[in-house]
Write a structure and sequence with these properties.
single chain, alpha+beta, 5-stranded mixed beta sheet, 4-stranded antiparallel beta sheet, 43% helix
């Protein structure tokens, strides 16, 4: 079975390599901003009635860049051409997303028109699709124009697959998060079909806030609440940053410490979800989850921070690709399926069940059960009514 899989490694670059990485990220940002300024200029000319072409797609933006790069960026040869192409590709995707959102072809909340990128704001990354991209040894990778870069962790997981001929690198993306550099290799991987440890077992998973997830087996997964636990530290660093002179050495140091604090929160959250979803996919033959409208839930101002801290959308997203890898399947309940209000013993459905009620009590069969455990039981029972494989509703 061929599938796309990403392998991400932390880098340990030397000062020279770090300057080269930052230069490529800056080149990508420059190309994005240059292309956006050109698009805005052409749109304004069209409003004045002039007959001009607006470069909306990646090929059109590349043609415009190749005509103008010697004049607008005479230093462009210092970086790989992929850096500029990566910035133009990001702009083309942003323009297409905005257009599709306006015309109703894109789901989710409405997208705004692309804005200019600023150094140090947002995600800083650059992608390479051509050139020397390889894993040299267990502690070094090779990137175009940058050369050999030392990794902070061993690359054995990817290198062993490449040597065995079961993986092929398609793209390398370098990013900076929390003051640390990472490289992510998008690969085409040949995976051997696997079988879960309990292929005929069904488990229902109810994601929540009090517990990260409650399984129909009765197991309750603790919610690490990484943001809640780090709020005091983040607030203190924000106050310290506000007292510093912007651009000073102390301001830069505090900003780096704040970025590392936020990165640690994200890493703890990511680690918890990956451990849970991997265990579910490798253990049970069928995993049933509910379809949550997370953006709608976050409109509740009292719960918005806790819901965002739990990142409930990760459950379905990760199971969708991990279950096929492990030979299991994921079943997604309908968004309006009353998993919490239905009795898992007799099937009676309550008219209402307020959020503050943490215990489910059935007036028909007198069942008294934890609210989340009752919902997980209903989700597990739903699998018997769903046929087929893969993500089903």
């Amino acid at each position: 079975m061929k599938t796309l899989q990403a392998f991400r490694f932390a880098l340990d670059p030397s000062p020279r390599v770090e300057r080269a990485l930052a230069s490529h990220v800056g080149a990508r940002r420059f190309a994005f901003n240059w292309g956006l300024a050109l698009v805005q200029e052409r749109l304004e000319a069209r409003r004045r009635g002039e007959d001009v072409e607006v470069p909306w797609t990646l090929p059109a933006l590349r043609r415009e860049w190749n005509r103008a790069k010697e004049a607008v960026a005479p230093w462009w040869r210092e970086n790989s051409k992929e850096a500029y192409s990566s910035g133009l590709a990001g702009l083309a995707e942003a323009l297409q997303n905005w257009s599709d959102s306006r015309k109703g072809r894109r789901r989710g909340r409405r997208m705004g028109f692309p804005r200019f990128r600023k150094k140090g704001r947002g995600r800083e990354s650059v992608s390479f699709t051509t050139g020397a991209i390889r894993v040299d040894d267990p502690s070094h990778v090779v990137l175009p124009r940058i050369g050999r870069v030392r990794t902070h962790e061993p690359t054995t997981a990817l290198r062993s697959r490449i040597e065995a001929g079961t993986a092929r690198i398609l793209r390398a993306t370098v990013s900076r998060e929390g003051g640390r550099w990472y490289v992510s290799f998008t690969c085409e991987v040949e995976r051997v079909p696997q079988t879960p440890r309990r292929p005929h077992a069904v488990v229902g998973v109810d994601a929540g806030i009090q517990h990260l997830a409650v399984l129909s087996t009765g197991e309750m997964i603790e919610n690490p609440r990484p943001l809640q636990n780090a709020l005091n530290q983040i607030a203190r660093l924000n106050r310290e940053l506000a007292r510093r002179q912007p651009g000073s050495r102390g301001w830069e140091e505090t900003r780096r410490r704040l970025a590392r604090a936020h990165a640690r929160v994200a890493n703890i959250r990511r680690d918890a979800w990956h451990k849970l979803t991997t265990r579910l996919a490798k253990t049970f033959g069928t995993v049933v989850v509910e379809t949550l409208n997370v953006e709608g839930l976050k409109r509740n101002r009292r719960l918005a921070r806790a819901i965002a801290d739990a990142a409930l959308g990760n459950l379905r997203r990760q199971l969708r690709y991990k279950c096929p890898w492990s030979g299991s399947r994921v079943v997604e309940a309908d968004p309006f399926y009353p998993s919490s209000k239905r009795c898992s013993r007799c099937g009676a459905v309550k008219d209402t069940l307020p959020l503050w009620a943490r215990t489910f009590g059935c007036e028909v069969c007198s069942l008294i059960l934890d609210r989340d455990e009752n919902a997980a039981g209903n989700l597990a029972a739903l699998a018997a009514a769903v046929a087929g494989s893969g993500p089903e509703t």
